[in-house]
Q: What sequence folds into this?
């Protein structure tokens, strides 16, 4: 095991791709899908913390993914966009989605 860094590099590269795809997918989901109810306060804080950790992790793993600059910038823009969506309105702050409406009863 001494001197073998290919396994660690491969793991870091896989984590980079996973973080990037989660951020991009989450951003597209929250941008295009309206929310129908407010989450609990703890769920809201946990979502924001997860988005922040994934964005910071993407930055930290960027060097491990050689040649994935377009994916990095797209993931980083999506991570920042997730926080910008929350600044859109009071409903967006609570739900994390760009649009919000109640379903008819």
A:
């Amino acid at each position: 095991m001494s001197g073998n860094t290919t396994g660690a590099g491969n793991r870091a590269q896989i984590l980079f791709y996973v973080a990037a795809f989660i951020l991009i997918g989450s951003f597209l989901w929250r941008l295009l899908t309206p929310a129908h109810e407010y989450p609990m306060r703890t769920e809201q804080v946990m979502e924001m913390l997860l988005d922040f950790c994934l964005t910071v992790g993407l930055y930290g793993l960027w060097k491990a993914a050689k040649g994935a600059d377009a994916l990095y910038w797209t993931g980083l823009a999506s991570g920042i966009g997730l926080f910008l969506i929350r600044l859109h309105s009071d409903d967006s702050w609570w739900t994390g989605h760009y649009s919000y409406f109640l379903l008819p009863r």
In short: The chain has four helices and no strands.
